[in-house]
Amino acid sequence: xxxxxxxxxxxxNMVANLVFITRGKEVLLxxxxxxxxxxxxNGPGGKLEHGETAEEAAIREVQEELHVxxxxxxxxxxxxxxxxxxxxxxCTVFQxxxxxxxxxxxxxxxxxxxxxxxxxxxxxxxxxxYWLPEMLQGKAFRAWFRFNGExxxxxxVLFRDC
Length: 162
Hints:
The chain has 2 helices and 11 strands, in the order ββββαβββββαββ. The chain is mostly beta strands. The protein has one domain (3-161): Nucleoside Triphosphate Pyrophosphohydrolase (Alpha-Beta Complex). Strands 1, 2, 3, 4, 6, 7, 9, 10 and 11 form a 9-stranded mixed beta sheet that branches. β10 (139-148) and β11 form a beta hairpin. It is globular.
C-alpha cells in the first residue's frame, strides 16, 4: 500500500489511544472483554472524551481497565485505521515504563504480562505484528491500515528512532 492508496481526504470519526506498559522485557497486555476488539489481546486504551488530551485519556483508560496509573508516558506512534464499514479511527500509541498500583481484572479487561518474545500476535489485531515489536525496541512510527471487519486489506508503516 502506498500512502496514495489511503483515502484522501481522511478525517477520523473516532479518536482513541493505546498504552503499552513495559517492565524490563515484558509488556502488560489485556484480554479485552468489551467494545471494539472484544475477545482479542491488546494494550489497554480507548476513546477520548470531550475536552481530553490523548495523554489524559490514556491515563484514564488504563485506570478504568486495570486499576493502575501509568507513569512516564511517552508518545510512540500514530495508527490510522480505515474500515470498509466507514469507521475511520485515529489512535495515539503510548509506552509507559512504570505504573502505580497492581494490575487488576475488571469487567472490561483481564491483564497479563508477556515477554517481548512471547507476545501472542495470533490472538491480536492483524496490524499489531507490523509495528508493536519495533515500538517495544524504541522506534517511533506512523502507520496506516485498511480493514474489512477483522481482515487487514492493506498496510503502510514508517519507523524512526526516538
